[in-house]
Amino acid sequence: MDYRHRFSDTESGVSVLELPAGKVVCVGRNYAEHARELNNAVPAEPMLFIKPATSLVRMEEPFLIPRGQGDCHVETEMALLIGETLTKGDDDKVLSAIAGVGIGFDLTLREVQNSLKQQGHPWEKAKAFDGSCPLSAFVSPEGIAWNDVNLQLMRNGQLQQNGNSGDMITPVAELLAYICRFFTLCPGDVVMTGTPAGVGPLVSGDKLEARLSDWIVVTTTVL
Ligand code: ZN
């Protein structure tokens, strides 16, 4: 595991942030329209799952999707880099513990996931495989309006996902407070805040452009 979080600042360019890559805590169905497009119910409480550090790869570099396991969907999500430990009861500290904001792809083997769900089994083989979380460099969240962040994915020149964090069912502060009731978040952990509608399968050769408001644009290729 040699993944290192990167921090991009306008003066010095991209640099390596001295934070170990930790776990990635994800929330399912945090945008109502996305829940509907997959015919899923909107959950009463955040639905959490975890990807291990071995899921992380650099989004800017061409990335591989698994072969021979059915469709691999891309879910474009706002990613939060945790800079300070957050645990149960730290609700009033959650926003100040965010060290960076970036973009993550929650790659999902949709057919594998559907089959696991039908059997009542855990999802990890569909969501937490090696390389299942391409991640951008982070930028400072200073001055950010957490309820008004735009998130876009262009695939081969076509707009595929276009969402705004204002549509999140559980917004950022509440989501972090909820997560740390169950899982202590450590420096270097990442929280993925859920995908807006428009998820779909990737194929080898796809050219992707992911955008977070005016702060981050990443172009990449599916191998
Ligand atoms: Zn997701």
Written description of the protein model:
With 223 residues, the chain is mainly beta. The protein has a single domain, classed as Fumarylacetoacetase-like, C-terminal domain (Fumarylacetoacetate hydrolase, domain 2), CATH 3.90.850.10. The protein is 13% helix and 36% strand. It is built from 4 helices and 16 strands. The strands form 5 sheets. Strands 4-3-13-7-8 form a 5-stranded mixed beta sheet, with no helix packed on it. Strand 1 and strand 2 form a beta hairpin. The two termini are 21 Å apart. The model has no long low-confidence stretch (mean pLDDT 95). The structure holds zinc ion. Residues 26, 75, 77, 106, 194-195 line the site of zinc ion.
Summarize the structure.
With 223 residues, the protein is mainly beta. The chain has a single domain, classed as Alpha-Beta Complex (Fumarylacetoacetate hydrolase, domain 2), CATH 3.90.850.10.
List descriptors.
223 residues; Fumarylacetoacetate hydrolase, domain 2; four-stranded antiparallel β-sheet; 4 helices; binds zinc ion
